[in-house]
# Entry
Amino acid sequence: MKVVTCIAPVNIAVIKYWGKRNEELILPINDSISTTLDTEQMCAKTTIMANPNFKENKFWLNGKEENCDNIRMQSCLKEIRKKANKNLKWFDWKIHICSENNFPTAAGLASSAAGYACLVFTLAKLYEIDGEISDVARRGSGSACRSIYGGWVRWHMGENEFGFDSIAKEIVPKSHWPEIRVIILVVNDSRKKYSSTSGMKTSVKTSSLLQYRAESIVPKRINEMIDAIKSKNFEKFAEITMKDSNQFHATCLDTYPPCVYMNDVSHSICSLVHSYNEIKKSIEVGYTFDAGPNACLYTLEKNVSEVISLINYVYPSSTPKEEYFRGIPFEDLSQNISEDLQGKVMNQRMEMDQLKYIIQTKVGSGPKMLEDESEHLLNEMGNPKVLIKTII
Ligand code: DP6
# Structure
């Protein structure tokens, strides 16, 4: 038997992908840019075992057996096998796949991007592939292609009708700008959102703003964003990130029927960030929102203490600290914001418990293989070591 275990990161787009020109091949209507987050705080983990005695392919996600027949998973398997070393002894053996996220799925935080990137990366290790695999990850979920690389990543939409050039490439590695911190505010919200896949399909059909955005706004914005990243211009980086998030949500509202992802708490977070930047007389924090109400804030390490004190003041919480603050520990949690700042944001204070929890993380590297056998999620029989994980 042959067994491989890998982990892969989450990525958060700062120039959004929204809309496909080819549904089956998952080819986008515009380029996008993201930051890859550190796997220390959030990651997907996958073990794949090939065994000549397995009767069929099997797949478990977060401890629950799922159907392997879904089209996206099948196309990842098919495409990766085209690139595989066909002389391997285990090339024709059936496989068992076991995958889990180390972060709550309920948070709706790009779990499919990390999950498909991890699946494809692990398959590539199993079949000893060294070349490009972001095109295969793209077939699982568009945004997954960006999780194949670390640091700041651009997904080139490409021109080829078969998608050969629709691949992700690293812009700069994480070491280029280590001061960047990411604070994720998970908003208390149990409403079911429309999936990105169906939302963007309706946007392509009905939103003229989306067409305009893809053709006339994004190409210029991509270049400006790359300049901001390369020159480590935080103000520019955060400004473009916020504008692009706002425009993405505007196209969602321009969709018919509209896709409403942000809620009142999300909007209040935007207002607070703008007030804070105005008080500071410079852009110290930027926000971005994906297809859900949770905020992803970008700031520099030196601002984290004040920003988190501000958030604690405006969004008081009764959740125990150990549960509420996750990821990189926030130092100095007892620190209060200055009386001056308090006075200026007092009217924005919200009722108790508008946020579920907060994760601090940073920019990280791409997927990696775990050598230690104890990391495998499957036992020697090829069954999951842990069944049905309860993840809140
Ligand atoms: C709002 O990659 O989840 O997060 O390709 O249909 O699987 P599919 O969609 P998906 O869409 C992500 C949309 C987004 C923006 C982004 O990550 O660029």
User: Anything to note?
Assistant: The first strand starts at residue 2 and ends at 9. The domain at 1-174+370-392 is CATH 3.30.230.10 (Ribosomal Protein S5; domain 2).
